[in-house]
């Protein structure tokens, strides 16, 4: 088991490197663009040229990537903070420390000052959504898969299909039209600021609802499929035939085995949630990580895009590791192989 | 998984039995699939007939309607914030979505299928290389990858297709690889190998057609998902360049007015949902049918 975890972790670290190189390649593919975007649209071409020289942007992509990695790991000083450049990119942490993501040109602050607060706001949003998605989809999925083809199964399955067919921005529009414009029960924006007259918790209701609706549709269908498959197994028939009450069969025999496959699916939802928050935060003007990535991309804030993607990737890859290890742990066929 | 293709089972277990009727002919037996197909055909018909329908041009501004953009006899679904007819923009926008989304999904299949077949059929180093590369792409939160790509290469129909290919092909390769692994050891492949068929023939003529059941389902789901993606990109301000109608962009423009004129965002949102629902229902119906065999 220890070997298995180590092998998985090593391959995931490799994936992280490769993926971060991919992001670097996409954002810094055109070197003159890097200098231009760092200085902004109003800089003189001569200034852009000087920066181009100073940053060594003529070097090949791989060399520039290793330099960026050096700054991130605290092995090299961030070249943009060099006072000789006169950019005034000041970071109180110094120019050489582990986790130096550089300077955000959009927020005019070190990336580390911008990113973590946003991440916390998003973690709250995604965390509440996740805490609702899991029990809701487990209950609905088990109820549906328990008696395949029953009326309840059909109703829940249709709900599942419909929920996965309504993208977050569309359900956002529907919910806002109903609860904000129509009934006036909830606020339509979520700046997480009590000054708007709405308590903070009311501002969380709609963004969470949008995330839960879209994601749970998919998980419900997965749980249902797995449950239905288990219910057709011979040992379930045996349990029923030996006279156990249905409740007992479902709770003690079926559910535990039916949960192995959806376990992976549920953890991978964290990856979907990161995608989902980009849209949801845009709908409700929620001051989070997803909207920050969007703003950074539209503005061309290279350092922030790279940092944010790397963090999102790390989260996604860590959940993948947990799900791989957990799956192996739950499923003896893999654990003992 | 449901991936054990019934076709393969039929071939190995009862070779003399007549082949089951094609999926297309059994489609009417699934009400779910028929509802889905109906929704898709509804939009296809409107998109095809768009030039013949008595509609305002999609970019024509009716300045009189600016005073009261609500639905009326003149504009059935009302007008948008620039006085443009929403019904006309939806129908003309359907042409874009219904050509870009299937084209993008198909292109992703053209790239993903050979990769998955090669990985599954050859195994070994080929498999390791293709699977590792796929893992890298699949580990991304997908929308973030789209946003970074499109923000850098610019929004256009071609770039959206390219982004979909890059992000969807690895997933398709993974599915095809899994299906190939299941089939590779069956007798009909051994027979083809004994006949000394070349590897390309075995992969594309023998293996691929026998994987079609799950792939048809996956294709429908993927078209639906691509429609969601195009909608999201439009909504985030990375949609097809204005002024031509794009459903996601219409929703985005409408949300600015949602508190006074909800119809401007509700109708485009409903249009997107109905089309996605069509593809998802069709996918579900096809899956049920291929399981029932």
Automatic annotation (TrEMBL), chain A:
It comes from the Bacteria. It is a multi-pass membrane protein. Its main location: membrane. GO terms for cellular component: plasma membrane. Residues 119-323 form the ABC transmembrane type-1 domain. The chain crosses the membrane at residues 123-146, 158-186, 198-220, 260-287, 307-330. It holds the Pfam family BPD_transp_1. SUPFAM superfamilies: MetI-like. GO terms for biological process: transmembrane transport. Keywords: Cell membrane, Membrane, Signal, Transmembrane, Transmembrane helix, Transport. Residues 1-25 form the signal peptide. PANTHER family: DIPEPTIDE TRANSPORT SYSTEM PERMEASE PROTEIN DPPB-RELATED. This is ABC transporter permease.
Automatic annotation (TrEMBL), chain B:
It is found in: Cell membrane. GO terms for cellular component: plasma membrane. Keywords: Cell membrane, Membrane, Peptide transport, Protein transport, Transmembrane, Transmembrane helix, Transport. InterPro entries: BP-dependent_transpt_permease (IPR050366), MetI-like (IPR000515), MetI-like_sf (IPR035906), OppC_N (IPR025966). One of its GO terms (biological process) is peptide transport. Gene3D superfamilies: MetI-like (1.10.3720.10). Signal peptide: none annotated. The chain crosses the membrane at residues 32-53, 97-121, 133-151, 157-176, 219-240, 260-283. It holds the Pfam family BPD_transp_1. It is a multi-pass membrane protein. Residues 94-283 form the ABC transmembrane type-1 domain. Belongs to the binding-protein-dependent transport system permease family. This is ABC transporter permease.
């Amino acid at each position: 088991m220890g070997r298995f975890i180590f092998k998985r972790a090593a391959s995931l670290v490799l994936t992280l490197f490769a993926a971060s190189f991919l992001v670097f390649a996409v954002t810094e593919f055109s070197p003159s663009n890097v200098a231009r975007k760092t200085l902004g649209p109003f800089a003189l071409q001569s200034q852009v040229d000087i920066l181009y020289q100073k940053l060594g942007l003529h070097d090949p992509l791989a060399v520039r990537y290793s330099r960026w990695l050096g700054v991130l790991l605290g092995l090299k000083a961030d070249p943009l903070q060099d006072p000789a450049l006169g950019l005034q990119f000041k970071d109180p942490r110094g120019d050489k420390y582990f986790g130096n993501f550089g300077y955000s040109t959009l927020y005019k602050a070190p990336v580390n000052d911008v990113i973590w607060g946003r991440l916390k706001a998003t973690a709250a949003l995604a965390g509440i959504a996740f805490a609702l998605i899991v029990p809701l989809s487990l209950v609905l999925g088990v109820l549906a898969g328990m008696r395949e083809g029953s009326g309840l199964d059909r109703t829940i399955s249709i709900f599942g299909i419909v929920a996965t067919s309504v993208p977050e921005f569309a359900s956002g529009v529907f919910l806002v039209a109903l609860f904000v414009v129509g009934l006036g029960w909830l606020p339509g924006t979520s700046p997480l600021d009590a000054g708007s007259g709405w308590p903070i918790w009311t501002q969380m209701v709609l963004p969470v609802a949008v995330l839960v609706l879209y994601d749970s549709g998919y998980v419900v269908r997965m749980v249902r499929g797995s449950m239905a498959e288990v219910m057709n197994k011979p040992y379930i028939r045996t349990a029923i035939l030996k006279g156990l009450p249905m409740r007992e069969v479902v709770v003690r025999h079926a559910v535990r085995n039916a949960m192995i496959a959806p376990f992976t699916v549920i953890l991978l939802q964290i990856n979907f949630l990161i995608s989902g928050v980009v849209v949801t935060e845009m709908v409700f003007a929620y001051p989070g990580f997803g909207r920050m990535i969007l703003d950074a991309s539209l503005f061309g804030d290279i350092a922030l895009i790279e940092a944010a993607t790397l963090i999102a990737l790390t989260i996604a890859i860590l959940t993948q590791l947990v799900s791989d290890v957990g799956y192996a742990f739950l499923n003896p066929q893999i654990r003992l192989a | 998984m449901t991936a054990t293709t019934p076709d393969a089972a039929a071939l190995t277990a009862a070779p003399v039995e007549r082949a089951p009727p094609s999926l297309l002919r059994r489609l009417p037996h699934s009400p779910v699939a028929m509802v889905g197909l109906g929704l898709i055909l509804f939009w296809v018909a409107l998109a095809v007939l768009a030039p013949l329908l008595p509609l305002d041009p999609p970019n024509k501004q009716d300045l009189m309607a600016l005073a009261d953009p609500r639905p009326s006899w003149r504009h059935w679904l009302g007008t948008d914030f620039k006085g443009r007819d929403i019904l006309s923009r939806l129908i003309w926008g359907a042409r874009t979505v219904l050509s870009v989304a299937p084209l993008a999904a198909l292109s992703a299949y053209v790239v993903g299928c050979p990769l998955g077949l090669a990985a599954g059929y050859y195994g070994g180093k080929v498999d390791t290389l293709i699977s590792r590369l796929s893992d890298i792409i699949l580990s991304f939160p997908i929308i973030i990858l789209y946003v970074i790509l499109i923000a850098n290469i610019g929004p256009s129909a071609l770039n959206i297709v390219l982004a979909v290919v890059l992000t969807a092909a690895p997933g398709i390769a993974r599915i095809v690889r899994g299906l190939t692994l299941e089939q590779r050891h069956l007798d009909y492949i051994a027979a083809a190998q004994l006949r000394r068929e070349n590897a390309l023939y075995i992969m594309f003529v023998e293996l691929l057609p026998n994987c079609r059941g799950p792939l048809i389902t996956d294709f429908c789901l993927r078209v639906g998902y691509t429609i969601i993606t195009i909608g999201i990109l439009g909504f985030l301000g990375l949609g097809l360049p204005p002024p031509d109608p794009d459903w996601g962009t219409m929703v985005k423009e409408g949300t600015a007015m949602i508190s006074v004129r909800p119809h401007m965002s509700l109708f485009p949102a409903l249009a997107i949902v109905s089309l996605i629902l069509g593809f998802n229902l069709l996918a579900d119906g096809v899956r049920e049918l291929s399981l029932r065999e």
